[in-house]
Amino acid sequence: MAGRGTGHRAGRDVGRDGRRPSICPTLLYADARAAIKQLTEAFGFTEMSVYEDGDGSVLHAELAQGNGAVLLGSKGRGGPFDEAMRDTGPCAVYIAVADVDAHHQRALAHGAEILVPPTDQPYGSRDYLARDAEGNLWSFGTYAPEVPSP
Q1: Which of 41, 42, 90, 126 has the smallest number of Cβ neighbours within 10 A?
Q2: Does pTM top 0.90 for this prediction?
Q3: Torsion angle of C-alpha atoms 54, 57, 60, 61, degrees rounded to 10
Q4: With contact defined as beta carbons under 8 Å apart, do 26 and 62 qualify?
Q5: Neighbour-count burial for 35-61, b at 16+ CB within 10 Å, e otherwise
Q6: Measuring CA to CA, how many Å separate 126 from each of 20, 50, 60?
């Protein structure tokens, strides 16, 4: 297995040190490499690690955005998670960003499909909605829920 990154650090204050989120959306893509490219270039994620098998399928990838992360891999590799995800549809993920308009401009510049342009919401957030190349919805906005300390 080829890979780069820092590896796994199990049992180290998960979600408590501000650097390791306790919730990470996990998605499988038919073309995980293209998804990584779109998420990093159009939506500003940072590639933290990518682990591949011998044929180049993405076994596991970690992309960061702010203090959160999304995990992803290739569809069709087999195994219990791939099997359980087989008949699921696209998902929707919300990401808090500091400057929605600049983020939106970046997404547009990289050809992202924008479903709703930046809009002020009655509850105080400003956000926009985009769809990735495989149908998942990504909302980016200024609202960041406050989570109580453990």
Answers
A1: 90
A2: no
A3: 110
A4: no
A5: bbebbeebbbbeeebbbbeeeeebbbb
A6: 26, 32, 32
- How many helices and strands, by DSSP H and E, does the chain display? 3, 9
Question: Which residues make Cβ contacts (< 8 Å) with residue 30, sequence separation at least 6?
Answer: 74, 75, 76, 134
d(CA 92, CA 7): 27
DSSP helix/strand/coil, 100: helix
The sheet carrying 26-29 orders its strands as 2-4, 46-52, 58-65, 68-74, 26-29
Q: Could you tell me which residues come within 8 angstroms of residue 115 by beta carbon, excluding any fewer than 6 positions away?
A: 129, 130, 131, 137
Over residues 127-138, the mean pLDDT reads 96
DSSP classification of residue 76? T
pLDDT in tens, 24-77: 999 999 999 999 999 999 999 999 999 999 988 999 999 999 989 999 999 998
Residue type, 58: V
